[in-house]
Structures are given as structure tokens and as C-alpha cells.
Design brief:
Elements lengths: L1 E7 L3 H10 L4 E6 L2 H12 L4 E6 L5 H14 E8 L10 H20 L7 E5 L12 H9 L19 H24 L4 E7 L5 H7 L4 H10 L8 H12 L10 E4 L3 H7 L3 H6 L1
Parallel strand pairs: 1-2, 1-4, 2-3, 4-5, 5-6, 6-7
């Protein structure tokens, strides 16, 4: 049986990680849009990777379960790269919660049922999860452990509580890291690991949408006010993803890796505090 790496959301970041961990393995690329999966397959296939494609709606249990069956039919699933999602500029609060929060929990559950011993997963979250003040122990536990099909029924996630897309995105991304922490316990019983990466502004088509959207000025301010003074690249995220999924990361699970060029540090304790006060 071949080892299989599943990439859900094979955009620039998903591909960057896959290039580092997919050598000698079968890489299954899945996206909501067939065109996106095909484009990624052409890039990776032309550089020597064994690839196949599938479509998946990460917010549909039936679709995610079908993808699991496709993946396990190819071989042992030893890797999961989950890089799908929508941004505040792209969707309503309800859609963001459904895709970014519920969808992540669903994928972690379904693939956690089949991940092979020695396998590893990486979920791409966001620095936005660090924009919220600390939540209570009870709310943290609810985001981490509420059964998937009950998650969107939590009182603090209702439309009267989450009224704008940015808040929905922030709480979804906070929820991602908490969910991964809880799932790491379950994955560990199968001898597998799972972690989250929370990138800052990485130059991708999605980031370009944000930079040219209504929050573009704020994004540019974050870049200017960070210690790095620049946006990041998908390959930099790929390097961290390779560490977390490879043997050198064998002692790391249930963790979240913030890599944002120092934006969050400046947001809470530096020159970007003014941005925080305005929100």
C-alpha cells in the first residue's frame, strides 16, 4: 500500500507543504472547485509528484466522508494538510463559521478516524485567532470538544452574538487551534500527531483579495508595523509545515505555531496597539 498525503485546499500554502512532504508518496489534491485541484495537480505533476484530484465541500459531512473513502482506497493516509477556508472579505459570518470552524472540526474528526500510525496533520489557521481577548475556560472547552454536529448551535456562535465577518473569522481561527489541541489526544491514540500553523499575511491570491478589499489599509498597516516589515511567503509556511509533519517534529502535537513576522506582538504590545483600540 502506498502512503497518501491528502491536501484539502491546494492553494499556494497547501502546495508549498505538499512539495516538502509528498516526495515518494501519492498526493491527493481536493478542492471545492475542480479547476483549482486540476491547476495544482498540473504544477505538482509536472515536477515529478504522483498526484490525483477530487472535489470536496469541507462543510459537508457526506462530501468529506467520500473523500476519506477515496483516500483510503489509494493507500494508507499518513498525512493531512488542511488549508481550505474563506476570509472575512469573501463571505458572511454564517458561511465563515460553517466553513472555517465547522469544516475544520469535521475534517479533523473524519480523517482522525483513519490516519495511519506515524502519520501527521497540519491545519492552516491564522494570526486572527490571536486578535480575540482570552476566552473563558468554559468557552475554550466548548470550541475544542463540542460534538461536531452541535458546534454551530453553541449560544455564543449565534447570529446575534457574531454579527460581522471579521469576528466570525477570529473566533473560527481561535477555535481551530483549540480543536486541534483536543483532537491531538484522539489522534495520539492512533499513534499520529496534528498541529496548527497560524500564519500572518502571506502573499497568496486570498491575501491579495484582502489587501485590495475594505480592510486593505489595515493589512498594510500591520505589515508596516511588524518587526519583519514585510509579508510572508508560502514557502516559509511550507518549511514549518514540513517540520511539523516530518520526523524532526515527532515530539510536537496539539500545538499552534504563530508565524506572522511579529504582527501579533506589535498588536498587543507595540505600535499596532492603536489598531487594536480602534477595533
Amino acid at each position: 500500500m502506498r502512503d497518501v498525503i491528502v491536501v484539502i485546499g491546494p492553494g499556494q500554502i497547501g502546495q508549498a507543504i505538499a512539495r516538502r512532504v509528498g516526495v515518494g508518496k501519492h498526493v491527493l489534491l481536493a478542492d471545492l472547485r475542480q479547476d483549482n485541484a486540476n491547476a495544482a495537480a498540473e504544477v505538482l505533476g509536472n515536477t515529478g509528484y504522483e498526484v490525483s484530484v477530487a472535489t470536496v465541500d469541507a462543510s459537508s459531512r457526506e462530501a468529506v466522508h467520500a473523500l476519506v473513502e477515496t483516500a483510503t482506497g489509494l493507500g494508507d493516509v499518513t498525512g493531512l494538510i488542511y488549508a481550505a477556508g474563506v476570509s472575512p472579505t469573501q463571505a458572511s459570518p454564517a458561511t465563515i463559521l460553517k466553513v472555517d470552524l465547522y469544516g475544520t472540526a469535521l475534517v479533523l474528526e473524519e480523517f482522525g478516524n483513519v490516519i495511519a500510525r506515524g502519520g501527521a496533520g497540519v491545519v492552516i489557521s491564522s494570526q486572527s485567532g490571536y486578535r480575540l481577548p482570552p476566552l473563558s475556560v468554559e468557552l475554550n472547552k466548548a470550541l475544542a470538544t463540542t460534538p461536531v454536529e452541535e458546534l454551530l448551535s453553541l449560544p455564543f456562535l449565534q447570529p446575534d452574538q457574531v454579527t460581522d465577518s471579521l469576528h466570525a473569522y477570529q473566533i473560527s481561527k481561535r477555535g481551530n487551534s483549540l480543536r486541534v489541541m483536543a483532537e491531538a489526544v484522539r489522534w495520539g491514540k492512533r499513534g499520529a500527531r496534528v498541529n496548527t500553523i497560524s500564519p500572518g499575511i502571506i502573499v497568496t491570491p486570498l491575501a491579495k483579495d484582502e489587501l485590495s478589499g475594505p480592510r486593505g489599509a489595515g493589512y498594510r498597516r500591520m505589515i508596516e508595523g511588524s518587526a519583519a516589515g514585510r509579508a510572508g511567503t508560502p514557502d516559509e509556511v511550507g518549511t514549518v509545515g514540513a517540520l511539523l509533519m516530518g520526523p524532526d517534529g515527532g515530539f510536537i502535537t496539539g500545538s499552534d505555531f504563530l508565524m506572522d513576522g511579529g504582527v501579533t506582538a506589535a498588536y498587543w504590545y507595540g505600535d499596532l496597539a492603536e489598531v487594536r483600540v480602534q477595533q
